[in-house]
Specification:
By secondary structure, this protein is α+β, with helices and mostly antiparallel strands. The protein contains 24 helices and 23 strands.
């Protein structure tokens, strides 16, 4: 892949695209040009490292229950309301891939002398410790205090005087466009020493470099976010859409971060769009152009802003609208091959003159309509309607019903359902931005009958549970290849969870026990277990887990929901202690009573847990295996939930359920006894269901 356009990360301020469409111009330009180049959609990039965000979070009434990452994620989702977050996902300047790349690049730049860590005289706020600058005393913008003190701090700096100019003509992408001489002059006159570390509550932490309490300057971080997104798509020519004012503000700070390997980041300048004037309904009535209104505002005007980099004036709107309408009415049914090839070349090199070329614009409209409706709004599910879907199964777990289909090539899945699926898809999009190993949502929306649908990439043809059954060779031992695949996915999930802890409420652990253990149901169906003894064991487990970070979790993690490339079925998500998802994954197999058909050996379980502990240490967290007993005690409750039959004396099926309920009760008691005695739970000592049935007597029944 060569040229790919990305939006310059948008600052996560107090606005929505519905009310402030001008904020989305860079995003719309990138989307339109990538679509013109035949590329798959790229994530929308966001800047969340802001002083305003720090102040907003500190002043929030729910700051003790809602963490910063969660607050930013909610604010980003609200930007797109009333619609969903884009199927291509979101990437913030604190995403795991961005953080990892930033530290890698900084260490390399320190090694070659481009960057340095130097002791510098600074001013610190006497109230909050915020660094207000390196020069004269200024009011603290973090807390508003006017009193500062002098101090010396180690800072990450870029001494640009020792290196080439921070901005050159070659840093701009745009064939035939004039050289922005004024921007080169602005960049030339920035201070010769640029400080790249800041005091912030949120950002790319520089503590691994010895700079405690400091984060990377967000003006540098947004360049790295683009490079990280480009690396995921193997793009060697990432192009960042940006206004001239924004470029003047960030270019010098991004100078050390425009190259990584063979990839070179360039800027595509664009102007602003007068959306207030463009919203005037009279404009479309006068020119009989209501049919192209959405096409004009959402697609054509942003492209015009990429051509007219000083901005589209309101006076130009009638002429541009008339031109678009005339070309739209004369557009061909299908684009001509040679014209389309020329158009794509011009889009690739940044030659935006084509937006005023009637022949090229007509070709672009025809090409666009191969996947987009004539008014410019997406048809319901481009992928939904244009893919050869094959039925897989009904979605019985969704209270609103629904189905699962797979594309003929096996590359995509389509699910339909109701509000539960909508919530799951939104959560999945959020954690995809946190680098969780989940399927990327390609498209979502509503079908013509009002059902919600989601189209997502395939993570593999078989779950690890299905692979485990297929690998059995007359015995019950789990194949090592399955354990290794599980370990790989689990380590990825654990690392992403550890990198994004949730600032949860003080009672979050107890809420997790209630949600994950289904305690309300379990104690209602088994009142003889709602005892001081059980609660004492749970209190001991909570005390043991007291220092463990809380993270976004799956709550039903196991071989049936793990595929070679990631994890599916996130409908039961919630906040969990780190390790709850992955650590018990092999230990819970015996709760199925031998019905799984396979079992993990002691050596496999030990190797798996050792791998997780290594992954936790690599993420800067404590090992998870010491907490396995506490986690399994809650799992024992989970497997007892919703098990009691409505009529114990009913037909054969009910009698089987009665026996299975008794069996799960027995396993909970065995687990409870083990945990009381040793602080651990060894599920390998659990009997199978058949062995339990043979030995079951009246004393086993409640």
């Amino acid at each position: 892949m060569d040229v790919v356009y990305f939006n310059g990360p948008v600052q996560n301020g107090d606005f929505s695209f519905a009310k402030s469409p001008g904020k989305a111009v860079g995003i719309r330009i990138a989307e339109a040009l990538n679509r013109q180049l035949g590329l798959v959609p790229v994530p929308h990039l966001w800047n969340t490292v802001t002083l305003a965000g720090d102040v907003r979070h500190r002043g929030a009434a729910d700051r003790d229950t809602v963490g910063r990452e969660q607050r930013e994620a909610r604010a980003l989702a609200a930007k797109y309301a009333p619609g969903p977050v884009p199927g291509s996902g979101l990437l913030t300047d604190t995403g795991p891939a961005v953080v990892s790349l930033a530290l890698e690049m900084i260490q390399g730049l320190l090694a070659d002398g481009t960057l340095a860590v130097r002791e510098i005289a600074v001013r610190l706020c006497v109230r909050c410790g915020h660094m207000t600058g390196t020069g004269a005393a200024e009011r603290c913008r973090s807390c508003g205090n006017h009193v500062t003190r002098r101090a010396h701090r180690a800072l990450l700096v870029f001494d640009r005087a020792e290196h080439r100019p921070v901005l050159e003509r070659g840093d701009f992408h745009g064939a035939g466009a004039r050289t922005p001489v004024h921007l080169l002059n602005v960049a030339h006159n920035v201070p010769r020493r640029l400080v790249l570390s800041r005091t912030r509550d949120h950002g790319i932490c520089l503590a691994p470099l010895g700079l405690e309490g400091m984060v990377l300057d967000p003006r540098a971080g947004l360049h790295i976010a683009v490079l990280a997104a480009a690396a995921e798509r193997a793009a060697v020519q990432p192009v960042m859409t940006v206004t001239e004012n924004a470029a003047a503000h960030v270019a010098a700070y991004g100078a050390p971060f425009r190259w990584h390997g063979t990839a070179r980041l360039r800027y595509a300048l664009h102007g602003r769009v007068p959306y207030d004037a463009a919203a005037n309904a009279r404009l479309y009535e006068v020119h009989r152009a209501e049919a192209v209104r959405e096409l004009f505002t959402g697609w054509y005007l942003p492209l015009c802003a990429a051509r007219e980099r000083s901005g589209v004036s309101a006076a130009r709107l009638p002429g541009l609208l008339k031109f678009l309408r005339r070309v739209y009415l004369a557009r061909p049914a299908t684009p001509r091959g040679e014209v389309l090839a020329e158009l794509r070349h011009r889009a690739a090199v940044g030659d935006m003159s084509w937006v005023m070329d009637a022949r090229a614009l007509a070709c672009a409209l025809a090409d666009r309509e191969s996947g987009i409706g004539p008014t410019g709004s997406e048809e319901r599910s481009t992928l939904m309607n244009r893919t050869d879907w094959q039925f897989v199964k009904e979605r019985t777990a969704d209270p609103d019903g629904g189905t699962v289909h797979v594309s003929a090539d096996g590359e995509r899945y389509r699910r339909t359902g109701g509000e539960a699926l909508r919530a799951e898809a939104a959560f999945q999009q959020m954690i995809a931005g946190l680098d969780y190993p989940v399927s990327r949502v390609l498209e979502c929306g509503e079908t013509s009958d009002g059902a919600f649908f989601v189209v997502e990439e395939s993570l593999g043809g078989q779950s690890l549970h299905e692979t485990a059954l297929a690998c059995l060779d007359g015995g019950r031992e789990l194949a090592d290849t399955v354990v290794d695949q599980l370990a790989e996915v689990s380590a990825r999930l654990l690392y992403a969870q550890a990198a994004h802890p949730v600032d949860a409420a003080t009672d979050a652990l107890r809420q997790w026990v209630e949600q994950a253990g289904w305690t309300h149901n379990v104690f209602a169906e088994n009142p003889d277990f709602d005892t001081p003894r059980t609660h004492a064991a749970l209190d001991r487990a909570l005390e043991q887990l007291g220092g463990v970070p809380m993270v976004w979790g799956h709550l039903d993690y196991g071989l049936p929901n793990v595929l070679p490339a990631g994890v599916i079925d996130w409908q039961h998500h919630g906040v969990v202690p780190l390790g709850y998802d992955v650590a018990p994954a092999l230990e819970v197999i015996p709760f199925k009573g031998g019905a799984k058909g396979y079992a993990a050996t002691p050596a496999q379980r030990e190797r798996y847990l050792a791998g997780l502990d290594s992954a936790a240490r690599a993420a800067g967290a404590d090992p998870v295996s010491p907490h396995l007993g506490a986690l399994l005690l809650v799992k024992a409750l989970f497997f007892l939930a919703l098990m009691r039959p409505a009529d114990p004396a009913g037909a054969d099926k009910q009698q089987q359920r009665q026996q299975k309920w008794q069996y799960r009760r027995h396993l909970f008691l065995k687990g409870l006894e083990q945990y009381e005695r040793t602080g651990n739970v060894d599920t390998a000592l659990f009997p199978t269901l058949d062995a339990f049935a043979v030995g079951q007597g009246p004393a086993d029944r409640p």
